[in-house]
Design brief:
By secondary structure, this protein is of the alpha+beta class. It has two domains: 6-205, no CATH class; 228-342, no CATH class. Helix content is 18%, strand content 28%. It is built from six helices and 17 strands. The chain has helices spanning 180-186, 228-232, 258-265, 276-289, 300-311, 327-342, and strands spanning 6-7, 12-14, 21-23, 28-29, 43-46, 53-56, 61-67, 72-81, 87-92, 97-107, 121-124, 133-138, 144-156, 162-171, 202-205, 248-251, 254-257. The longest helix has 16 residues, at 327-342.
Length: 349
């Protein structure tokens, strides 16, 4: 029985302002029953029109997620490493199936969470289960790491109604089903595996055959930001609460007056750690109130977009409503915070 599904898809790497085409080597190690849906490698561009920076992908690896009881393929995942170091992981369901739940962990085996609910990358859909494809973009991973991936899919009839055909699958390579629970116990992470009991995992090395991960240094525009405290605390400029020059700020589709935004900022943080939504909101608001041209930055623009897209799925924030975010949003917030710290505007601005 063939259960090792890994394809290397050739691609072309495009470099900014140079007409140079690099051909990537092709390597095949089996085929996937969903190969017609395989994602070809490509080049995307980040930044404003005056600051185009290419992110290239030279190959895609396809890995199947199996329903353990029958070894039926529940879905496929496609992994590709970008020249900016990011890992793009796309999940696709087979025809007439739609995602109910996706959970993903990529990193050191010692960091594997003990519950699916605690996986850093996850999404849960409600009826009518609209999506049969979803992509996570992960930054900061080494070249090699451990992957744990779980999906739950539902089948829809021709009229769009959900049928009783619901299947859960775990990703693994080869003809074996390496036990995630055994790995957890061996590493001393825990003795009870809970909803990971039937799980599997695989160790993955990124394909970087047509670029070096440190090849591309992203060019940043000459932009700056006021510090967060200038708008949400005691401004160092006047040692006072500095009034905003704007009556309100719009973040994630919701508009906040200065008093509403400051009320969020002044909520008490449990254990000294700000809630994810509060932390992210204050930093995006700071950029906007500083008139920072963040979309001109190839790193800052995508980070702000990630935060605002997530906030747009939530109700308007308030001191009583400060929800936790996904790991992707926390990572994006950290990128924004580092930028604000490293690029202060001069006092005269």
């Amino acid at each position: 029985m063939k259960t090792y599904l890994l394809n290397k898809i050739p691609a072309l790497c495009l470099f900014a302002f140079l007409v140079v085409l690099l051909s990537c080597n092709k390597s095949n190690s089996g085929s996937s029953p969903l190969d017609e849906d395989s994602i070809a490698s490509y080049t995307t561009f980040r930044g404003g029109a005056s600051n185009v920076v290419p992110v290239s992908f030279c190959a895609t690896d396809t890995v199947a997620l199996f329903f353990k009881a029958s070894n039926q393929v529940v879905s496929n995942m496609y992994l590709k490493r970008g020249s900016d170091g990011s890992l793009h992981v796309t999940f696709k369901a087979p025809s007439n199936f739609y995602f109910k739940q996706i959970n993903l962990y990529c990193g050191a085996p010692e960091g594997i969470p003990l519950l699916l609910a605690n996986f850093p990358y996850k999404i849960i859909y409600s009826q009518p289960f609209p999506s049969n494809e979803h992509t996570f973009i992960i930054n900061g991973l080494p070249e090699s790491f451990t992957v744990v991936a779980y999906t739950n899919v539902v089948k829809k009839a021709a009229n769009g109604n959900v049928t009783a055909d619901v299947k859960a699958g775990w990703a693994h390579l080869g003809n074996e089903h390496p036990s995630l629970c055994s790995l957890i116990k061996t590493l001393g992470l825990g003795m009870v595996c809970g909803d990971l009991t039937e799980g599997s995992y695989f160790n993955y090395t990124s394909n970087t055959s047509c670029f070096s991960l440190d090849r591309l240094v992203l060019e940043e525009p000459d932009i700056c930001s006021r510090p967060v405290d200038h708008f949400f605390g005691i401004s160092a400029t006047c040692n006072c609460k500095s009034p905003w020059s704007e009556a309100a700020v719009t973040v994630g589709g919701s508009t906040y007056t200065e008093s509403e935004a400051r009320a969020i900022a002044e909520t008490t943080d449990a254990d000294g750690t700000a809630p994810d939504s509060k932390y992210a909101f204050m930093r995006v608001a700071t950029l906007k109130l500083s008139y920072t041209d963040y979309m001109a930055s190839p790193t800052l623009g995508p980070a702000v977009t990630t935060v605002e897209n997530w906030l747009a799925t939530k109700s308007k924030l308030s001191p009583a409503y400060l929800p936790d975010a996904t790991q992707e949003v926390r990572d994006a917030s950290a990128v924004i915070d580092r930028f604000i710290e490293a690029h202060p505007c001069p006092d005269r601005r």
